[in-house]
Amino acid sequence: MRTNRLHSIVFTVLICCLALCGCEQKPDDKEPDIVTTYISLPSNIEIEEGSGIKLVLAGTTNIKKDDSIILRTVANQDIPCLLTGLKDASFLEFAIPEGTVSGTYKVYVSRASINHYVGTTNLTILKALNVEPAPGTTVYGIITCDGKGVPGVLVSDGVDIVKTDADGIYQLASQKKWQYVFIIIPSGYEVPFQGILPEFHAALSADSSTPERKDFELIKTDNDNFTLFVCGDMHLAKRNNDLQQFASVAVTLKEAMSKASGKTYCLTLGDMTWDLYWYSNVYTFPQYLETANSNLSGAKVFHTMGNHDNDMNSVGDFNKAFRYTRDIAPTFYSFNLGKIHFIVLDNIDYNNVGTGDALRSEYVLDYTAEQMAWLQKDLSYVDKGTPVIITSHAPLSRPNGATTYNDKYMSGADSAGEANMADFISAVAGYDVHFLSGHTHNLFHRRHNDKLAEHNEGAICATWWWSGKETPGLHLSQDGTPGGFGVWEFSGKNIKYSYRSAGHDEKYQFRAYDMNEVKKVVTTDAGGGNSKFNEYVTAMSAYPANTILVNVWDYDDDWKVVITENGKELAVTKDYAYDPAHIMALTAPRCKATSSPNFLTAKWPHFFKAKATSPNSTITVKVTDRNGKEFTEVMNRPKQFTLADYKNK
Known about the structure:
This protein is α+β, with helices and mostly antiparallel strands and 649 residues long. It has four domains: 36-126, Immunoglobulin-like (Sandwich), CATH 2.60.40.1220; 139-217, Carboxypeptidase-like, regulatory domain (Immunoglobulin-like); 222-501, Metallo-dependent phosphatases (Purple Acid Phosphatase, chain A, domain 2); 511-646, Sandwich (Immunoglobulin-like). Helix 9 (531-541) packs antiparallel against helix 10 (580-593).
């Protein structure tokens, strides 16, 4: 009984205590929690030294004036920041302590030693400028090298071009149409690289009337002598074993770069990705950059945009290119390396084209009026004694015979100011121009006049990676050109160029076929009876007995091809032909696999033929390139036609 009475007394005391507590603090009097989800934290923030940060609030946060902001570094060091302004449901401001450096920070609101996470941001702290932007200026900044402003550097928003002043400061009265700003890298300088990407451009985010500051850094360098590796269509899409095949191509590319003289750079020619697989294979520009950075670590890569780098989920040329301009580069820009001026343009025009895969091929080939107006401004700063390299994804023209071309290939211009091939050639008249392109996945060189040479530079992916998938080790484009890259060597204003086949050394410059033996292999049975394949059988059968066929993929008019039989020179003629190795490596298995095959062997003009007098004679093929290098094959006939002879070494 005594124990029960004690329990009763204790219980009564507890009830009284709770009642008393309830009288002193009601549940409604509890301090409300901080709500960080209403704090709008940009992923990137730029401020000047000594300035604070202002964050917009989307609702009531319950933050007090005596709370603080914590910036936590990637090394988990906390930097307390003082709240300097607070207007609930509107904005908050806080000061950055002196000595804080640019970097990635986690942001917290701190109260009573408890941190409330807001988010993560990349903070860039800019040097204070002793300049007040002029009226109308919407983009401004400073170009520095070793901490000092660099005068005379050209800066553009894709419309206007201005120069930095004596202190390295530029000001643009920009309407921000293209939503980026870039510098035209001057001769004798480089820019820092983030992975493979040069940091010469910056995205704009404020509205067209709000001034925003974008600074750039230059690095003084001696690059009068350099080698440029020109990389045509890659079509990386996480299919056809393309990532593994690209890794193999990269081995040759890195080996060539390691042996090159002077500085080394790379330049793509568009279609680094394949928009058809952006979503289904989750492979867009971030994945491309991951692949390129992994396989080409240390490479410095400038980019050209291709038709397959456009987003078909967006409407019109500008919107389709927006992801590219944010992740890779502007669609048109220029830069200098050593004594050479480079101009990158985009001749894939999706103006007014809507969304959907069915409209993928609805672009036209031209240069927009905006690009042409900018091009004239850019060239006005270039001395006509300076060699100019201009790149675009699609070529100006395209072969349609052994010695003829389709000069209306780039003929999409249909509005005032737009340019087709003839308009473009007129616009660059007076300059010594080499025009580089991709798109065809084949290779040709053409001299339009004594000032303009056109170079369609082949493809990294060859036939969209199909050849190496169907016949591993044989990586060929539709014209029989091995997948590979151009090698352009610059010494001052002197230029030499050649082609390097992936998986082979630099001596691999042609293939020679004994057509008597080719005919035995390219038969109806090889293509499974497919009517498409029979077209190739017919073409091979049409060669007269004892014909020698030579594919010299990097040929131009400065090359020489000599074919002798038992020491006697034979008559050699140029041919518009199919490559037998590509027929058997890709077209045959594709024709066997499907009734409607694609990516098949194409006729191209860099072939040569001669007729021997005997099926058993010894043939010597000697090819001399534009640089005076000789390449020779002695063919003991009959020479069997087997793909194993042409596979990667």
